[in-house]
Design goal:
The protein is an alpha+beta fold. It contains nine helices and 21 strands. The model has no long low-confidence stretch (mean pLDDT 93).
Amino acid sequence: MQLSVEIRKRLASYPLEVKFNLEGRVLGILGGSGSGKSMTLRCIAGLETPKQGRIILNDKVLFDSSKGINLPSRLRRVGIVFQNYALFPHLTVAQNITYGLQDLPSAERLRRLAEQIAKLQLSGLENRYPQQLSGGQQQRVALARALAVEPEVLLLDEPFSALDTHLRHQLQEQMIETLRSYQGVTLFVTHNLEEAYEICEQLLIISQGQVIAYNDKQSIFERPATYTVAQLTGCKNFSKTRAISPTQVEAIDWGCNLKVIEPIPESLTYLGIRAHHLNITNDPSAENTYPCWLVRTRETPHRMTLYLRLHSPATQPNDYHIQAEVFKEKWFTIKDSSFPWYVKLDPLKLFLMQA
């Protein structure tokens, strides 16, 4: 299964220009609000028309501006799950699931309905209407409807965004299981970094209509090439940087010199490290280790974010250099320790970026 997309379309504030080739995998699309993520899906589905470009699915041309080809949605073999599910309120669960199967014989419609009811655990809900369902049930019906047409590409547009945390996690597990047996190509739009990492194999990152990164998820998270990619994938710690030697840089904003492992790019502008990769250590002589003082904290159920100032105590709450994330267990072992603490910026975890 292969999807090739190269499209251009004018958005309200800037042009959308997206290009990628995907083979039988789950692609996560990340980006800020209004960056063009959902519009990309709508163009693939045939709900919007690009100004220029081509969309090819398994050697079948869905759209080609130069040849005047623009297949209607119903002929594209595309399944789509919208953010708000878009179920038909006047149709039952069974009627919603079989809505796109009207051209099939009755026996085949019933076979596909039974298959999706079983796969998505909707037994007993067939005759209910959408308003009689919970948010999680509506989401499963929307997914069943998308899969019932046996699509060659499945488009998921923030399908978990309206759900509470517990239900969201349950349905993520179910989605992973469903996609494991799905033979087609999947595109998954989300704002949630952990969700993208858990469900997707590759990531496409869009900023203001432009693709700024396209790679496997490990490469993008471990070695983001630019400041914007690092930001959009959740990095909190940045410093303007210049090279001192082939293996050492000056972190200008942090007031320290740091050893680095990766080759230093000619266009080096920034250095970054993820908050969970910082290590509070008892060894002040360790490489890339500097004294630090706690400025303030932020608490979540399982972790603490520590706002740290290097070299000297802070004078006000925003006077910090870096954020470190630690589990509560670690926090309880260090919170009463006298200052200065020592923080290690592991050379293996530092990444060097262009602007």
